[in-house]
């Protein structure tokens, strides 16, 4: 799935939103960006003058850090103009030229730029540009020696298993890339195996999105093998990959020993409570697990699963497992599980003549107004002042200002 929730390089948890704060160059200035609107008349032909204006004359601009040109019918000439502009502009950091159907010629131009890239560009979105295997070969050759790009979005293209082999070679060599979105392509078992082989040698990638592909159970097993040795990945999205209970069980072997992964999204797969149980028990068996979120949100579970999860969370209080719902749970108990947590905290604060803010500040020894999501979840579950369960903690986190993996009181 696509996240502007890419909005991870910092998920130390968390969604693509979340790890990008880590990869982005630090600056005290507010980020400025320029967004070009899509032309509304599809019948109107673009003139040479309009193509030339694609660069927006920002070669010497020092304030625009982000340029959004998604779905603007950019032509080959327009892409060439953009890349020439980037050779002159050392301030632009983020470029989005998704959904422009750039094809092979566009890929050649972008690859040539990446091979000579000395700009400040670190985030590049190339989603939906009809890139195929030949395009993948060109882009991967450039990225094998270009380490400036930290976040790369290649989702919604036409990459198949051959393209995955090119990507695998790039991943084995690249030491700069931290977030890679390959969702909605055409990878199947061979492609999944190739990508996992590349990941075995990669030591910098933190976020990987391969949702809506065809990894299957064999791909899940290969990724589980990667997790046994990988110490950099903190976020993986495997949604919609045809993974069954057998695949979940094989993937869980990696969770038993992995010490870095924090988020695993695996919903929209044919997994039931049996597969879900194998995943949470793997986390329980790993005392060094950093898992904070397991998303199986299309899977309905039983009260028996909930009891097992209670046992898992007793040793891993930072963990949140998102599932569809509890089957066969009495209505009265269901209502209790979802009682407004902020109301419970307010009642406690009133009874003890303190402010709600004082309550939250008491959760952290530093008394700061922010906490990482995982630490906040752990503190809320372990505190004894307010009777609150993990479902209520999840809702509380949603209500608080949660950005880049941090809860803001």
Tell me about this structure.
This is Leucine rich repeat containing 74A. InterPro entries: Leu-rich_rpt, LRR-containing, LRR_dom_sf. It comes from Jaculus jaculus (Lesser Egyptian jerboa). Pfam families: LRR_6 (PF13516). With 409 residues, the chain is an alpha/beta fold. Helix content is 42%, strand content 14%. The longest helix is centred in the middle third of the chain and has 14 residues. Strand 1, helix 2 and strand 2 form a beta-alpha-beta unit. It contains 16 helices and 14 strands. The protein has 3 domains: 190 residues, Leucine-rich repeat, LRR (right-handed beta-alpha superhelix) (Alpha-Beta Horseshoe); 121 residues, Ribonuclease Inhibitor (Leucine-rich repeat, LRR (right-handed beta-alpha superhelix)); 68 residues, Recoverin, domain 1, CATH 1.10.238. An 11-stranded parallel β-sheet has the order 1-2-3-4-5-6-7-8-9-10-11, with helices on both faces. It has a 3-stranded antiparallel β-sheet with strand order 12-14-13.
Could you give the topology of this structure?
Layout: H1 16-23, E1 32-35, H2 48-52, E2 64-68, H3 76-88, E3 94-96, H4 103-115, E4 123-125, H5 133-143, E5 151-153, H6 161-173, E6 179-181, H7 189-201, E7 207-209, H8 216-229, E8 235-237, H9 245-255, E9 263-265, H10 273-284, E10 293-302, H11 303-315, E11 320-327, H12 331-337, H13 341-351, H14 356-361, E12 370-372, H15 373-382, H16 390-399, E13 401-403, E14 406-408
Parallel strand pairs: 1-2, 2-3, 3-4, 4-5, 5-6, 6-7, 7-8, 8-9, 9-10, 10-11
Antiparallel strand pairs: 12-14, 13-14
Helix pairs in contact: 3-4, 4-5, 5-6, 6-7, 7-8, 8-9, 9-10, 10-11, 15-16
């Amino acid at each position: 799935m696509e996240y502007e929730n890419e909005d991870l390089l910092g998920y130390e948890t968390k969604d693509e939103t979340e790890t990008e704060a880590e990869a982005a160059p630090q600056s005290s200035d507010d980020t400025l960006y320029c967004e070009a609107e899509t032309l509304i008349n599809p019948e109107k032909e673009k003139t040479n003058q309009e193509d030339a204006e694609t660069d927006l004359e920002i070669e010497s601009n020092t304030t625009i850090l982000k340029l959004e040109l998604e779905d603007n019918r950019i032509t080959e000439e327009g892409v060439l103009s953009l890349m020439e502009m980037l050779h002159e502009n050392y301030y632009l950091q983020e470029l989005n030229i998704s959904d422009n159907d750039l094809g092979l010629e566009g890929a050649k131009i972008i690859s040539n730029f990446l091979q000579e890239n000395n700009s400040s560009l670190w985030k590049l979105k190339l989603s939906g540009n009809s890139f195929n295997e030949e395009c993948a070969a060109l882009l991967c050759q450039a990225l094998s020696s270009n380490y400036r790009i930290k976040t790369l979005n290649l989702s919604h293209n036409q990459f198949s298993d051959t393209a995955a082999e090119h990507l695998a070679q790039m991943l084995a060599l690249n030491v700069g890339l931290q977030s890679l979105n390959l969702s909605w392509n055409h990878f199947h078992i061979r492609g999944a195996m190739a990508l996992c082989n590349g990941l075995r040698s990669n030591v910098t990638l933190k976020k990987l999105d391969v949702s809506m592909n065809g990894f299957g159970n064999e791909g899940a097993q290969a990724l589980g093998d990667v997790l046994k040795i990988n110490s950099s990945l903190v976020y993986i999205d495997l949604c919609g990959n045809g993974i069954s209970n057998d695949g979940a069980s094989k993937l869980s072997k990696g969770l038993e020993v992995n010490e870095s992964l924090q988020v695993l999204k695996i919903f929209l797969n044919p997994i039931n409570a049996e597969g879900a149980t194998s995943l949470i028990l793997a986390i329980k068996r790993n005392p060094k697990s950093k898992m904070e979120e397991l998303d199986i949100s299309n899977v309905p579970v039983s009260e028996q699963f909930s009891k097992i999860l209670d046992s898992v969370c007793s040793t891993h209080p930072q963990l949140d497992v998102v599932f569809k719902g509890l089957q066969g749970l009495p209505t009265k108990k269901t209502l209790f599980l979802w009682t407004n947590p902020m109301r419970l905290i307010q009642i406690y604060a009133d009874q003890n003549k303190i402010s709600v803010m004082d309550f939250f500040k008491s959760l952290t020894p530093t008394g700061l107004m922010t906490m990482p999501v995982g630490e906040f979840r752990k503190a809320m579950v372990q505190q004894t002042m307010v009777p609150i369960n993990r479902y209520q903690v999840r809702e509380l986190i949603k209500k608080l200002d949660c950005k880049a993996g941090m809860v803001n009181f």
